[in-house]
Predict the structure.
Amino acid sequence: MVPLNASELKPTARFLRKYDLKSTVTQLSGLLTAPALQANTIRIETLVHLAVAYCRGRLQPGVSEISYWLNRQLGNTEIASLEDPAEDVFVTNVETPEGNRRVFEGVWESSDYFVQVVLGTLDNRRAPPECRELLVPAFALLKLSDCVAERVGLQRWHLEQSTPQGVVTLPSATRVAERARAVTFTADELDRLSVSREVLEPFILRDADRQALAAEII
């Protein structure tokens, strides 16, 4: 349990203030689609959260900056010490009325089971209307997850070796820029997927949310 405003994270927060929000967040988020980095998910997610909370500038980071943040700035923090070996496959599967959807497991174990239970609960005819209304946004988000997996060429049950608490390497094979594009959707791309911005409204982060994020806990 580490607060994002912890003193050991403040140097990274200061660095991030000079960088562009969209460019930084998409490149960092794209790393979460790299199977070889699954064991480093907590470090990467922390950096994503810090970027969302603090990025205010115009600079666009490159691989060298991202590597510096992950290793030199976060590598010796409590965040890095929280990393464990991956406990499940990298990509799992959830069933929906619209078809199977690939889900990125992250650091959670059996997340597909729990997502399936939640979907089944919301779809129960006894569920209150305000709960059943959550199904449409949930199905839309799962469709985007499946699309991201397709873009980066990942199939269900993908499993790959990854190493926690060590140096996070970003070789050219990581394809940072390509992965950044894979987690980004234009308005036209959403239209082709029949996903409206209104449906995604529950998942949109607002400026007030960004300000509150700095006090959250990893």
In short: Residues 7-84+167-185+205-213 form one domain. The beta strands are 91-96, 99-104. The mean pLDDT is 94. The CA atoms of residues 89 and 159 lie 5 Å apart.
